[in-house]
Each structure stands twice: as C-alpha cells, then as structure tokens.
Write a structure and sequence with these properties.
Elements: H1 3-6, H2 9-31, H3 42-64, H4 72-76, H5 79-110, H6 124-149, H7 154-157
Helix pairs in contact: 2-3, 3-6, 5-6
Length: 159
C-alpha cells in the first residue's frame, strides 16, 4: 500500500488535532493542581478541538470506506445489482451531504460576527468544521461514485 493511499490529509489533520487536544487537556489537568493556575480558554479550546477532530475524523472514515453498514442484502445480490444498489445509495448520500455543505456554509456566514466566549476568534471557526468535513466527505463520495460508474468492483469499493 503506497504512502498516499495509507495516509491522507484527513487522517493526518485529525491526528494532529488529537495531539493538540491532548496537550490542552494536560494544561487543564495541571492547571487544577497547586503547580500553576490554568488558563480559562482551555475548556472552550478543548471543545472546539474535539469538534474539529470528530468531523475531520468522519471524513477520514469515509475515505477508508469504514462506516458501519448492513451488507447482508447487498451480499445476496449479483454483482451487477450490487453495483446498482451502491450507486443508488451513494447518489442519495451525495445529495444529502451536498445539502449539508449548503447548511454549513449558511451557518458559517450567520455566525461570522459572533465572538467566542474565551477564544479570540469568531464562532464561525467552530461551525466551519462542519463545512470543511462536509466538503471532504462530498469529495470522497464523488470519487467512490465515479469508480462505481466506471465499473469498479462493488465488493471492492464497499468493503
């Protein structure tokens, strides 16, 4: 497996966010001891990092095609019918995620002037996590759909 297939932008970013989140949590923990007083922004930063990590992680799961699914119906179908079923599922999924991109975009615009409580930035940065993840997921679904339409093995694509 090549480096680019094994590691992705989504996975690397989610991993870095996890490491930063771990550091922020350590600051929170040690800030509650007599060693030093913890900064007030760590709680909000931890929540924001968690949200970003979770959404980007969802995009990574979509890249790996590792989401939960019940495959007993698809496995019972012949390959051509299975491919049609997966194309239909991905077209519906693509439409739903495209709508989520639009909703996320409108949410970012609506919250652009709202200030975060303890962080020196707009609340839109938090809501941008949904937008970024939705765009990444949309990209991965479109790639998978293109492979299915070109005749890729439905069993291979949806394993």
């Amino acid at each position: 497996m090549s480096f680019l297939r094994r590691y992705s932008l989504e996975g690397c970013v989610a991993s870095i966010l996890f490491i930063v989140l771990f550091g922020v949590l350590l600051i929170q923990i040690f800030g509650r001891t007599p060693l030093f007083t913890g900064p007030v922004w760590t709680e909000e930063a931890a929540r924001w990092l968690w949200v970003w990590m979770a959404f980007i992680g969802i995009a990574e799961v979509e890249r790996q095609n590792g989401q939960l699914r019940m495959g007993f119906i698809a496995d019972a179908l012949p390959l051509s019918w299975r491919r049609l079923l997966f194309i239909l599922i991905d077209v519906v999924y693509l439409a739903i995620v495209a709508h989520l991109v639009w909703i996320s975009y409108k949410t970012v615009l609506r919250t652009w002037n709202n200030e975060a409580v303890t962080l020196p930035m707009s609340d839109a940065v938090l809501y941008a996590s949904g937008l970024v993840a939705s765009v990444l997921i949309l990209h991965r679904i479109a790639r998978r759909l293109a492979m299915l339409v070109r005749g890729g093995d439905a069993g291979e694509v949806h394993q």
